[in-house]
Design a protein that fits this description.
Layout: H1 2-13, H2 15-30, H3 33-44, H4 48-72, H5 76-84, H6 89-127, H7 132-141, H8 145-174
Helix pairs in contact: 1-2, 1-4, 2-4, 3-4, 3-6, 4-6, 6-7, 6-8, 7-8
Amino acid sequence: MALGTALGLLLGRWRGLDRWANPWVMIFLNLPALVIIVLCYLWIGLNEVAAVDAVTVNKTAMVLVTVREGARTFDRALTEMARVYRLTAIARLRHIVLPQLAPYLAASARNGLAVIWKIVLVVEFLGRSQGVGFQIHLRFQMFDIPGVLAYAVAFVAVMLVIDYGILQPLEHRATK
């Protein structure tokens, strides 16, 4: 999320850099998650680093595109005001940039969480020896439909708790 936010902010503010990077962004945005997962496992090995890298590569492009669009919509008058009043970089970030990016960051977090957890399941399904994806794989091999559904319901319950307990309160506070 942090990497995608930083890159999205850079590309949204500097048109030349955005034009140069856009083909790469589109490639990473459109590469199937399964291909990225398999390549990470082949290049890095069947370990945690490969799993984390696969998830990071998939998430970064999604966040980057959303934040880039938010950065393109910045109010130029606020940016000029910050320059005239010589606000520090931290003050500009806190009072100008983050309030304008808040809706885009919230959308990015929500979309990213929904997609990334699915990718984590596939990562665990394909190459890990523990985790929910691994457990679903075991249940699948045994044709244990109630077991697969139990893990799916538990998974959805955790995602709802995260959304209602963390993301929505943060979004509400940020958009006040």
